[in-house]
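REQUEST FORM: STRUCTURE PREDICTION
Request ID: SP-0412
Submitted by: Lab K.M.
Chain count: 1
Length (residues): 288
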Amino acid sequence: MNQSRATQFGLPRLSVVGVTIAGLLALAVASWVFVLAAGSQQGADFFSLDTLRRGWHFVAQDLLGIDAAGTPAFARWSAWKDTAPLAYRTVAMSVLAIGIAGLVAVATFMFGARNVMMGELAPYGSKAGTLVFVVVRGFFTFTRAIPELIWAMIIIFMFAPGILPGALALGIHNAGVLGKLSSEIVEGLDRRPLQALRSAGAGRMQVLAYGVLPQALPRFLTYLFYRWEIIIRATIVVGFVAAGGLGFEFGLAMAHLKYTTVTLLLIWYLLLVVAVDVAAALFRRLAK
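STATUS: Completed
RESULT:
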């Protein structure tokens, strides 16, 4: 039904955004109806007073150490000193990971741009460019499709436990993400400066150097720092298997039921995330 007929019969006009929002709301309502259905024991347990009591007991007595026999780990200066090197290794892992991801993305994102390899900026009749484009885009898809945890589980068999396997896992995964985003930046650039350079007689490499890179690099750096914020959060997951930083200690604390140590490590992560967010915001401001 087109818009004129919808108006004629008094029906509301449909849009892609409206249909999408309505579909998401319908799915959300349907999921909660399923969870809370009469035959769903999971829904009954989730909203029971017993669940609320268990949750309060875990937070108050286990994580916060209220009424505990000893001093909670997060209230002891010695515990902070012992875990400070782990926090440093976590930051080092994230910096090394974003460095790996950034270098790989910088070296490959031009080859993953359709307009550079197959479009108006490509050499005419270049079948090799099409092949390179397909290979690079396939690399981006493959590396970002496999989660960081899986990459870490694979890499740990080749390296000794430490921050290097974790950094490689995070770097490989985020290289695909950054490469894909950066290639799409190039594909969506303003064409007018490029056409002006072409009209002035600039060659393909000159157009890339003076027309594409100056427009793409600031946005690439913005995405780079955004991914750094995500990487610092993902180190806790990778640390479980790569034996590096706070993540590995977090797994040990959970396994040995040292919940006040878990709280200490979570506070460390909160501090690191805030610090990285502030630093990334400053770097993004400088990159603009």
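NOTES: The radius of gyration is 26 Å.
Reviewed by: T.R.
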